[in-house]
Amino acid sequence: MAQHEASPWSARIGNGTGKTRVSIALCKLLTNNNWVKNVLFLADRTELVGQARSNYENLLPSESMTSLSDDDEPDLEARFVFSTYQTMINYINDANTKFSIGHFDLIIIDEAHRSVFGKYKAIFDYFDSLLIGLTATPRDEIDKNTFRLLELENEPNFEYNFEEAVKDGYLVPYKAKLHHSKIINNGIKYDDLTSEQRDELEKVWDYEKMLKGIDPNKEYHRDIEGNEIFRYLINDDTIDNVLSELMENGLKIRSGEDIGKTIIFAIIISMLKESWSGFIRSILTVELIIAN
Fold it and tell me: Among 25-34, 71-80, 274-283, which is the least confidently predicted range?
């Protein structure tokens, strides 16, 4: 397979059904037939890079591998190179870069619906290689189009969705439990606040008066919309209520003694880590995944 004749390829595979395993099988097939020699695996977080490398090493133990993001002295001659986008950008922007345009025969893009646009697209413009994109949720926005990046007509080459995985017994259907917060749904109504609560907002009003050029001595207040909570204002009581709901009604394991693996989608990761992480990690005996 001549490299310049190969077309990019996309696999839309449901979460939990084995995107990384599919990419490993493809690499084994291509390397065994001498169609590719050097492979680059890209992900947007060091944790994902590490997980991918571990899986590759487990299933392809005879191949040489290195991580540009983690290894103190990466082996730039390794056949399988793992990296975050930012680390690879730094390598190719180096005037003395060790990677030529044709160094990699295959680039695997993990979670190809995010982080591959904007400045990181320069990676794919630089290397002349076959591209394989892996994602459960491709994007087709005008300025962020996974299919256009892979030169496809809004359809992946291969798809194995959540419904098929459930039918085949690889996954089980989920049950959504909705828990609402009055503040997040309705915001904060100034007229409903106590005098103590109004005093707590005085710094916010002073800040807004400064931004809007309002006389500091002029009376000023307003209602806070629900979508401003945790984007503009952080409410500790709401955080505590969410944690309490998790502890009381979250997924239980070991006969209900412990909380199971939990994914928390947070608007502000730094706030979550500071306010929640220590407490959560002290009460959970399983992995906590923090994502935004």
Answer: 274-283
Structure tokens at 286: 């399983």
Better pLDDT: 110 or 7:
110
Strands 130-135 and 9-13: parallel
Long-range contacts of 56-62 (CB under 8 A, 24+ apart): 56/20, 56/24, 56/27, 56/80, 56/82, 59/21, 59/24, 59/28, 60/24, 60/27, 60/28
Q: Which of 108, 82, 93 minimizes the C-alpha distance to 23?
A: 108
Type and span of the H or E element at 159: strand 158-160
CA dist 24 and 39 (Å) reads 11
Q: Are strands 130-135 and 106-110 parallel, antiparallel or unpaired?
A: parallel
User: What whole-number distance in Å separates Cα of residue 150 and Cα of residue 284?
Assistant: 41
132 neighbors 151 (Cβ within 8 angstroms): no
Q: First-to-last CA distance in the chain?
A: 40
Region 94-118 average pLDDT: 80
What pLDDT is recorded for position 174? 76
Between CA 154 and CA 68 the distance in angstroms is 32
Pairing, β 252-253 against β 258-259: antiparallel
The model's pTM is 0.61
Instruction: Report the alpha-carbon distance of residue 292 to residue 290 in Å, rounded.
Output: 7
Helix axis angle for 46-59 and 19-32, nearest 10°, is 50
> Which tokens sit at 202?
């005085």
What does the block give as tokens for 24?
């490993």
